Amino acid sequence: MSVVPLSKPISGALAASDTSIARTLAKGLVVLEAFGAGGSALGNAEIAVRTGLPRPTVARLTRTLAELGYLAYEPRGAKYRLWGGVLKLAYPLLAEMGLRQIARPTMQDFADSVRGTVSLGIRYGQDMIYVETARSTENLHHTPDIGSSIPLPRSAMGRALWSLLDDKSAFALRRQFEREAPDLWARFGAAVEQARRDCAERGFCVSRGDWVAQIHAAAVPLFVDPTTGFAFAINCGLPAYRLRPEQLEEEIGPRLVALAANVRMLVERRRSSG
């Protein structure tokens, strides 16, 4: 089994001499972040490689997290996996996102009408995270799970979220990718810049197989929530073989722009009613 280090090792903030940071807490959270999708269990040595933390430190942290219910220990392989405490911790945040409940009926109608998948996502650092998904019963090719993440440059949704940044913030994020993920930026940077222009000019951007090869998508930036600060975008993904040439640009994108406008109106109405 190959072990891939995290894109952001434990250095950086934890290596700085900022006495206001609770370093042990931060290290524990970094250990939790070492677990990726797929449910793979990890041993202390694997976690140490992924995080850059010393193995004895990892051993103390994993035992503590297991005692608190955030990890489960598997004696047979001497490994840990994420446990129920992580899910319990995440639920209040999802519940606070009222947009999910407001948008879901119209998302489902749209997904059924185009036989695709419609999702909501937020920006989290250099990634986008899915927070809601509606899919047609006919679309069995790719359904994004809530909580799954993708690097911003690699999807229409991520690029739409990027377009919500002001010029200064967008430039800073670009420089961050150029430093920390130069290969990724070299491959997708031009698409990010084009998507910003497309969102400004026509309200949406598109992606053709940049994350899942057989899925093409259009995405629309929604808004930045004034209360939580979360930036939201909405997308529609379809199997490539179902799409006519230019259907993303001529039909799916404009319809998604109209859907986004309706969602914004519903959100504003909810806010006004208190």
UniProtKB/TrEMBL annotation:
Signal peptide: none annotated. It comes from Methylobacterium mesophilicum SR1.6/6. Gene3D superfamilies: 3.30.450.40, Winged helix-like DNA-binding domain superfamily/Winged helix DNA-binding domain. The lineage of its organism: Bacteria, Pseudomonadati, Pseudomonadota, Alphaproteobacteria, Hyphomicrobiales. Residues 22-84 form the HTH iclR-type domain. It comes from the Bacteria. One of its GO terms (biological process) is negative regulation of DNA-templated transcription. Residues 85-269 form the IclR-ED domain. The keyword Coiled coil does not apply. InterPro entries: GAF-like_dom_sf, HTH_MetabolicPath_Reg, Tscrpt_reg_IclR_C, Tscrpt_reg_IclR_N, WH-like_DNA-bd_sf, WH_DNA-bd_sf. PROSITE patterns: HTH_ICLR, ICLR_ED. The keyword Transcription regulation applies. One of its GO terms (molecular function) is DNA-binding transcription factor activity. This is IclR family transcriptional regulator. Keywords: DNA-binding, Transcription, Transcription regulation.
